[in-house]
Design a protein that fits this description.
- By secondary structure, the chain is mostly beta strands.
- The chain has a single domain, classed as Golgi alpha-mannosidase II (Immunoglobulin-like, Sandwich).
- A hairpin with a 2-residue loop joins strand 2 and strand 3.
- The chain is globular, with a radius of gyration of 12 Å.
- It starts with 5 loop residues before the first helix and ends with a strand.
Length: about 90
């Protein structure tokens, strides 16, 4: 059985990148756990999450190759990425 992350069901919800069309990004925070969920419902797109220090996160799930270039992510169409960090 896989690992259970309480942050997924118990964390506070914070939307990110609200101005991006067809990109849905949010962060959940619970105690010492953080998770960032990134989904792209459109064409290929580059986004910047450098304010979130995603270099500190590990990738739990990605349906394509996940490449982090200091917070800049190149998302393929219909890409989904889940990042996790425990402080």
């Amino acid at each position: 059985m896989g690992q259970y992350y309480k942050v997924i069901s118990h964390g506070d919800f914070k939307p990110l990148l609200l101005e991006e069309k067809n990109i849905y990004v949010y962060k959940r925070i619970f105690k010492n756990e953080n998770i960032i969920v990134i989904t792209n419902f459109g064409e290929e797109k580059t986004i910047n999450l450098s304010n979130e220090n995603i270099n500190e996160y590990k990738c739990l799930l990605s349906n394509t190759e996940f490449i982090n270039n200091n917070g800049t992510l190149n998302l393929k169409p219909y890409d989904a990425i889940i990042l996790y960090k425990k402080n």
